[in-house]
């Protein structure tokens, strides 16, 4: 997946097709054969094109674009007509279009809505090659990957399972690492005391020297530093109003284009709302209208006397002063505040020391997003309007933002493709669809299924519009689909039950191993009078370690077998 686009004059669909290099090579040779009127070459090349599935390439490219949120009209628009975020989607579509054995994706969900992310999850699960991706979306990782490679301290550590399993396993390793570190520190301290005491004594010099060498050979274990560099809160508003916003019979959109109508809503302090809806349904339109950056077409909008809005949107990152530092940005809105107070506040967003004085020009997207959030948090909002605030943010910052939003006492309206953020910070869901805004009473899992049906309907309409004869009415009815799904679940149930049993046994064994490691961290256990007890504990550790490894291997084999069966059932 490329990060830049050079040719801005290509049509979007053509740019995506450029990802299939072999297709373009066949087309070039076809054109040359046509110019030469070489009938034999033409016959061979048309057979090669058919074998490469080239006749359906245009349809497949448009399907990719539709899955990533592009309309039929946008498929033929020029690449240069799209914003930066949509160009990144084009790069993603081009990478997916390329037949490959190895697919490398760097933050592919950054500029996607939730419906596009769900579509991408389905696509990547069906991808037959090897996938290596970087992502800070935990739900996306859980849905797509089978292993996590963690980069820390210049080392790579491989963990089995998705991100949630990685968190659990790493937490256990950190506990063991901390115990080993504390044990080693005690041993080092004991050696150093011995060296300091006997180094100058001729009778003990040899023993002291041997301990010095042992100390040099001893591997230095790093303490388990797991503290996040981020810690902040949204400063409490000086005043509150109730309601903060009251919209009646609102008509929302751009100029003469209505996107939402008959919108009725009221926001009061403490409201915590996640806004759902398909791509282009009007989620951002709603946020912009409430923020006052988009005028209301019709209806009545009343705001509270003490309304103080904190508005986050991606375009705000571009509006930051590129030549100004984080410290100067904050000083401009807080001229009376002491510099140290501003520095302390910025430190919670990991802008420390000289970094707080560097110009924004050199900042990454994540650093700009953190600065934008810092400016909002400082201004004591009582209403937060957040449109995709986690784009560019890493896991640690997303966790810090989650905690800050949980502590926030004002009202919040959140649009995000980060399902974990929505689940952890909102207690009410609204759905924007078909030109209406309504309360959504189901949960996120139900919404993803609804969105999948909505997306499937859109894709069928697109294929029908392109004249794809595969769209027919011979699809199985809902009753048949439910029966077949039930039969599949029944066939897979024994294996799933066995895997669940293994997971419980593995968790129990890992807990036992952690308990043994804790025993071994007791320095008294290494005394001369407790050799037998130490030997017993070490034997238990070896047996338990072997048991954990065996259970992990069986668990992995079970999952692989389940995956094969599920693919066979799907086929």
UniProtKB/TrEMBL annotation:
Q: Does the keyword Repeat apply?
A: yes
Annotated region (Disordered) at: 461-490
All residue ranges annotated as the ABC transporter domain in the record: 242-459
PROSITE patterns with a match to the protein in the record: ABC_TRANSPORTER_1, ABC_TRANSPORTER_2
Q: Which UniProt keywords apply?
A: ATP-binding, Nucleotide-binding, Repeat
Q: Which GO terms describe its molecular function?
A: ATP binding
Q: By what name is this protein known? A: ABC transporter ATP-binding protein
Biased composition range(s): Basic and acidic residues:
472-490
Q: Does the keyword Transcription apply?
A: no
